[in-house]
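quick one, two chains, predict together pls
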Amino acid sequence: EAQVTQNPRYLITVTGKKLTVTCSQNMNHEYMSWYRQDPGLGLRQIYYSMNVEVTDKGDVPEGYKVSRKEKRNFPLILESPSPNQTSLYFCASRASGGFVSDTQYFGPGTRLTVL
Amino acid sequence: TQLLEQSPQFLSIQEGENLTVYCNSSSVFSSLQWYRQEPGEGPVLLVTVVTGGEVKKLKRLTFQFGDARKDSSLHITAAQPGDTGLYLCAGAEMTTDSWGKLQFGAGTQVVVTP
């Protein structure tokens, strides 16, 4: 089954404690991205990756890091989380970065609370 | 300010009624997508429209892309409780800087009661 998986699904942490949210896809997609979803603001892109070792900033990259060492994995790293990073996070993938009209598949989401 | 403005923000209707959700922008898009998101899940793609004036139908859902490629609408005929969800539009701007990038609207929450 084609899918994007994220872990953990729920996370409560404290300010300043480094955390990583993992993302994996089994469709051999080149393009992967991270979004955060906040009420009234919709989905905003944090970082994206066009392929292995190729990453770039989205609209709201401050406070986040990513890496793309393998095609299937695209972890999101918060080095020093702050309360304003409390949000619902989604990982997504599609076959190619250039064909934006391709189907984009989303993971189930990670609800993060930073106290 | 959202690049894509969706209206209304919230819509509550009875089963069997019709509804329309709008997605508007001042920008021109090469393509526009509609997603539905249910609680606890990620958005799922419903349709992609790429040609100005295009109309696509998916069972009781009708999607239209504006002639000028700046707006879109989603019409649901005879809504059912299973249509309940957050409907999101997403567009790809026709600019070099936005190549490959999707911009999302804030969404319209639709609730269909039996």
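The first strand of chain A starts at residue 4 and ends at 7.
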